[in-house]
Amino acid sequence: MKIKNKISIVTLFALLIIMLNGCEDMFEPAVENHKDTEDLYNMPGWATGLLGHAYISNPLGSWSFNDVATDDAVSNDPNNGYRQMATGSWRANNNPMDRWQYLRASWQYLNQFIFLADGVNWAADPLVAEMFRDRMKGDAFGMRALYMYHLLLNHAGWAEDGQLLGIPIVKEPEDLNSEFNLPRNTFQECIDQLYADVDSALMLLPEDYGEITDNNQVPAKYRAKGVNAGQYTRVFGDNAKNRMSARIAKAVRAQAALLAASPAYSDGTDVSWEEAANLMAEVLSGLGSNPVSQIDPTGNIWYANSQAIQNLPAGVNPKEILWRGNKEESLDLERDNYPPTLFGSGRVNPTQNLVDAFPMANGYPITDPQSNYDPNNPYAGRDPRLDLYILRNGSKAGPQSTVITTAADGSDNNALNRVETSTRTGYYLKKLLVQTVNANPSSETQAYHYKPFIRYTEIFLGYAEAANEAWGPTGTGTHGYSAYDVIKAIRQRAGISADDPYLESVKGDKDKMRELIHNERRLELCFEGFRFWDIRRWKKDITQPAKGMRIEDGEYSVLDLVERRAYQDYMYYGPIPYGEVIKFDNLLQNKGW
Amino acid sequence: MKQIYIGLIFCICFLLNFSNASAQETEMLAWENDTIDNKVEVAFRAINQRDLLGGVSVIDVEEMTKKAYTTYSLNFIENLIGGVSGNIWGMDEYLVVIDGIVRDANNVLPTEIEQITILKGPAAVVLYGSRAAKGVVQITTKRGKVGAPTINIRANTGIHTPKAFPKYLGSAEYMTLYNEARVNDGLDPSYSEEDIFRFASGENPYRYPSLDMYSSDYLRKAYNRSEAIAEITGGNNRVKYYTSTGYYRENSLLKVGNSKNNYTSRLFVRGNVDMNLRDFLKVQADANVTFYDSYSAAGNWWSNAASLRPNRVAPLIPLSYLEENDIPSWAAINASNYILDGKYFLGGTQLNPTNPIADSYAAGDSKFVSRQFQFNTLFDFNLKSLLQGLHFRAKYGIDYALTYNQGYTNEYATFEPSWTNYAGSDMIASVTQYGTDNKTGDEVISNSAYRYTYNFSGQFDYTRTIDDSHNFFGMIVANGWQRQLSGQYHRITNVNLGLQASYNFNHKYYVDFSSASPYSAKLPEGNRLGFSPTLTLGWRPVKEDFFSDTAFDDLMLTLSGGIISQDLDIATDDNEMGYYLYKSILQRGGWYSWADLGGEAATEFQRGNNPSMTFVKRKEINLGLRGSLWDKLVSFDFNYFSGKMDGDIARVSSLYPIYFTQVGYPTSSIIPYVNYNIDNRSGFDFSIYLNKKVSEVDLTLGVSGMYTSTEAAKRDESFEYDYQTRIGRSVNGLWGLESLGFFNDQEQIDSSPTQQFGDVAPGDLRYKDQNGDGIIDNNDEVFLGRWDTPFRLGLNFTAKWRNFTLFAMADGFYGGHGFKNNSYYWVRSDNKYSDIVRNRWTEETKGTATYPRLTTTNGANSFRNSDFWLFKTDRLNLSQVQFTYDIPKTAFEGSFVNGVSLYIAGYNLLTISNEREHFERNVDSAPQTRFYNFGVVGTF
Predict the structure, then answer these.
(1) Could you tell me where the beta strands, DSSP code E, fall in B520-633?
(2) pLDDT-based confidence at A34, cuts 50/70/90?
(3) Which helix (H) or strand (E) holds B409?
(4) How buried is B174 (Cβ within 10 angstroms: 0-12 exposed, 13-18 middle, 19+ buried)?
(5) Whole-structure pTM value
(6) In B140-244, which residue ranges form alpha helices assigned H by DSSP?
(7) Residue B426 half-sphere exposure, CB side, CA atoms within 13 Å?
(8) Which residue of A has its CA nearest to B592?
(9) Interface check A177 vs B, CB under 8 A
(10) Consecutive sets of 10 residues in chain B, 940 residues long: mean pLDDT of each?
(11) Are A105 and B668 in contact (CB < 8 Å)?
């Protein structure tokens, strides 16, 4: 073969290689598995994924520990955003509490999903498909109510014009051509919308999910259409447990009603304490005809027993838990919050303010002359919850029950302010941590945890708070139990002496009872992200500086200013995002921001 | 469109065969010698330097290397000519093309390079297509020449000496000042006077350590780099060859544990062959192979050096502090694999269970391995049988690069002693163990990555001169390349057709039309084919009669304008490849679970649709002026450029609610990317050379430079206050608060606007309330200056006397600013304390303090960008000085030696700046070095 022919063959071959190699991305982009919204009608898994998006951004999904921006705790992490905020950097354009963007983005997904759901081909079996459609839509309505509650919590407030505003209510999926310059709806309108979404959810969702075996257990509306137990279970069975249910939707409604009835908002709504109490009671009725007798005896240490959590059947909730996330083996919480000698970072440091809020075991507040409180032996004879939730000087913690010395003259890194992972207040967090966890990097032992989304204790306390306001400490409305009954049960569970003379002494005084209920709520729900908003909706003093305890040579002295709480009067309500107010002139900012 | 390209390729193939057939009858001709004088390689062709039409600069690297040896291929491009300052003409990236193939500049050595051409203007880059839109650095390697084989051997050896170390405080001073910071924050001091005294006394550095990671215990005074390179070149009428092979090895500054064996080495072999197969066919085949290894002991020495506080850990503790009968401690320590020199055990604490010194001994090692294989070939068909002056040339290149790390990752135990003191001497009472020894026998291969690059071009070009005065050139070129990166689904792609038509009359009047039709699969269908026209006019007035009596030897004026369509900027941070950015995407994203079950993937929207997305356009006009005066005493080259980058993609967020985008997890957005941003860019570059012979000394002085400014002309923004707008300001702006000094007392704080960044105390920075709202927050940030280098200066000087040559080069940077905001300057919370804090604000020193009060918090009020931390980056670096002696040829007469040169050189010798210390100090990374080299090169 002549050389030129060889060359031309080689050249042709080379060019062919180019063309073969060159196909992808050269003239057409390499194919990606992208879908359009239209495709979703025949892809129920993907369609449900829109709802899933809103589940991922569940505002209850993880611990916020925004308690470190309250009088309950401080963080020893200098870069903690809540710490910055509490010490004076809270601005409408620098807001660690901002949920406007994140939650409303997922809200859009809920709108999109609700819009699509009727057209999605959920299953081949038309009865199953109908039930899926009901469940999924109900789920989305319930989630939208949840989102509304949290948006109101973080962003509702009084505008300069004297109106109590919520968020702009948008119920349709928005696109690039929608009208965006929308005014905020009033708080009342938002509550109405939340109620409407809950009503929609209640229409579509069962009280709880779970397998049924008998066709007679199929709810009447489906039974009438010929749905059998197997078909029902496919949709509403065990594999839907801990998805949004009627029970959860009711709880969200009750939470919102309690918020609306509270002093910070009551002037702008028609939600009464009585309504809040009734809605709380409706949730509690799920526990039985006498809910107070059904209080989970371990409900105040629901996190502590890793073995029990591990042994929970899939999706099943202990009595205390109304809604929760998955149980998972981990040690993150412990690694963050254990004291240094247990290989933790000692992040959340409870304050003296909170420690002082625990009564004596006899039930009296430590300020009460009958309490027998001894400032020189401050931890003796206290409410047992103090030692359950807080590590103080001399407490034992960790898998070896190591004695933790937080005294300033302690010999190791647990001592007050010793190193960057030491406590700043003289206390470490104990609540939520499983003490069997070993955080030593060379011999780690994990434990089972879950994140409760709603606990019955919160609902009980909500009922007590609202019932006390509506009907007085011992008034029962139509429910057969009073605020007094609830508080007594909770205090008994905590280990307060059985006669509880202090409770008896205040049960005739609504104001004193209110203080007691507020305090019980503070203790029972501490470090779970409630305090920050509770003191705001109660219009309590939000500028109480965080205090600590310094112990040296066995002498106790209170540190009066561990960290200031640099909040202004207008900071009872969070701001809406600065940038949005600049862009959209119909959007009014809350007063002061 | 695709069909057009495929059609073109087939057409090329057809022609190829046709030409072969027709060429059969022609006679063998002798090798065509390269007839172009002062040849300059530009896009897809070489032209005579005098015919350059502006926007192009050229460096004769082969000539430079004789007097200025360097180790990095691009060392000269910012100095000898104007227009380059980390980028070309103020744009943010450039394309490196080596021998016509898209390659890395660091994989070719200066000794292998013949010429570097900088293509700056639109007309210069247009033929290379979309991805060359922001300039091209075109490197041409050496090729063989007809003649007897020549061997060139070069050997270098030199030392690196560190310029400066950051200065950190020792334990006692650190502890004293940390106590002060604590007191400032209203806290008790952390350290007792007695402790500080013991640390200060140095009585027992193992119990009271003061770790200095820059100490000579751990660092060498200097380290070596040695290199040998051999080049063999030669050829005859049929075949010419150039080969080069070389090896270098460099140590590191570290000498503790395994780090004393740290090294970097590179071995390469290159071969460039030119074959004259037939009279009508020339073939080039080039290959290059590189083996690069970089070995280092485990541990991150330099970042630890910037963060590990001196009092935290004693890394090595003598066994002699253990009592003989302390059975448990001995048992624990004897179980350790790491008793060093039979004398020391590894120290640790609970908070520092490992440390960089122990890492060097016990944590293993890692070798970064890089292998590159490069091959390219060129077929050059002379189609004169069809048409005199017509060529078809096809080029194909395939590069393969592979990198990975190999090494051992081990864990180790450390021991914290608990000390006692018997009769005045410290002893260890017991030890606590942290971690466990875990030496894996398995070598770990990690970070494996590969990269393929394919290049192809095919061109017909036509050169013809008629009547010795009408010079025509025409070219049509198809150019494409693709790069596949591991872990990336999509490929970096460039495809374009190019068209060039040039004419000049007597090298006096020039007109050139160059254009490209780039094709981009990143854009929506219908918008994928772009058009990039450029037009250039040139005039050489010295050829006019009326100009004949001036001092000008040469003077050339050029005027050029063009619009380059590019898809380089069709990319975003989270989609670097940039495909499908025009399209709304619904995809699986995130995961959710419930009922203690495994869960499901969620679905997310990313982006909105933009069916009209199109190329970003570089629109620019250039003015060029070059020439020489007085018998080349002065030669100069000047370019002015002005234009805009139009249609950079952005999300116009100001139109939509903030929640159209979700950040964090999950993530989402339904806002489309649109062609929106516009940047206005203008500036000039110049280079002036003076050549003068003063008695027997040839002197050359070169001054080059560039001024650029790029301002935002259109942006999506919604600022409440006009002074915050980005429009009309440099895109390289530094923004921050305007500081008014320190707060000197609480009263002053109380009477000033509220600073909303956290706690404020006397000694903190006080800021100006720009908008007068009584609050200092982010809305009070203003434009403070540019962080880039507005004016870049290059100075070079050559003096040649007989066989001695002196070369010196200095680089200037002017007009830029920076923030002193790294950990050396922003000392707060639990940072390591540098000497900068000595002049801190205290009640006593408030009159003279230059640094804010110390704090153990994050000091968010003072430690944020403000003009307090601003400094000018003006500086002049003496970057290279070389002294060369060429041994007279007469010395070798009759031997096989043709010539020998000896040279000594120094690099990065000196920085002249008000901020010299800042510029010479590396924080968080290995120190900068001065490099002194001795070399010899012999030709045989």
Answers:
(1) 532-539, 552-566, 585-592, 600-606, 616-629
(2) confident
(3) strand B390-409
(4) buried
(5) 0.91
(6) 171-184, 193-201
(7) 16
(8) A56
(9) no
(10) 47 44 36 60 92 93 93 93 94 94 94 95 96 96 92 96 96 96 90 94 93 95 96 93 96 94 96 91 95 95 95 94 91 91 94 94 95 95 91 94 95 94 88 91 92 94 92 94 93 94 94 95 94 95 84 93 96 92 92 95 94 96 94 94 96 94 93 96 96 93 96 94 95 96 95 93 96 94 96 96 95 97 94 96 94 94 96 96 92 86 96 96 95 94
(11) yes
Measured CA to CA, the distance from residue A27 to residue B495 in angstroms comes to 9
Please return the burial class of B895, using the count of CB atoms within 10 Å of its CB with bins 0-12, 13-18 and 19+.
Answer: exposed
Interface test with B, best of A442, A444, A453 (most B CBs within 10 A): A442
Nearest 10 degrees: Cα torsion B230, B236, B240, B246: -10
Strands B634-651, B673-694: pairing kind: antiparallel
In angstroms, the separation between the Cα of residue A378 and the nearest Cα of chain B is: 22
Closest CA to B88 of B620, B881, B816: B620
Identify residue B263 by its one-letter amino acid code: Y
Strand partners, A464: none
Q: pLDDT at residue A243 above 60?
A: yes
What is the rounded distance in angstroms from the CA atom of residue A73 to the CA atom of residue A354? Answer: 8
Write out residues 126-185 of B within 8 Å (CB-CB) of A. Answer: 182
Surface of A (531-590) touching B: CB under 8 A: 550, 561, 564, 566, 577, 579-580, 582-584
B594 lies within 8 A of chain A by CB: yes
CA-based nearest residue in chain B for residue A75: B857
User: Using CB atoms, which residue from A34, A93, A241 is nearest to B587?
Assistant: A34
Neighbours of B49 (CB within 10 A): 13
Chain A residues with CB under 8 Å of B778 CB are 91, 93-94
Count CB atoms within 10 A of the CB of residue B334: 10
Query: Is the CB of residue A261 less than 8 Å from the CB of residue A253?
Result: no
By C-alpha distance, the chain A residue nearest B581 is: A29
The separation between CA B794 and the C-alpha centre of its own chain, rounded to angstroms, equals 18
Return residues 186-225 of A near B (CB < 8 Å): 209
Residue B188 vs residues A84, B103, B179, B192, B400: alpha-carbon distances, Å: 21, 60, 8, 10, 61
**Interface ipTM > 0.95:** no
Number of other residues whose CB lies within 10 A of the CB of residue B324: 6
Q: How far is B602 from chain A (nearest CA, A)?
A: 4
Interface contact B666-A22, CB threshold 8 A? no
Q: Which amino acid is at A373?
A: Y
Alpha carbons B118 and B135: distance in angstroms, whole number: 8
Query: Which of A291, A363, A373 shows the shortest CA–CA distance to A516?
Result: A363
**CA distances from residue B237 to B143, B148, B277, B565 in whole angstroms, order as listed:** 14, 12, 10, 43
**What is the dotted CATH code of the domain comprising A454-539?**
1.25.40.900
Q: Does A93 touch chain B (CB under 8 A)?
A: yes
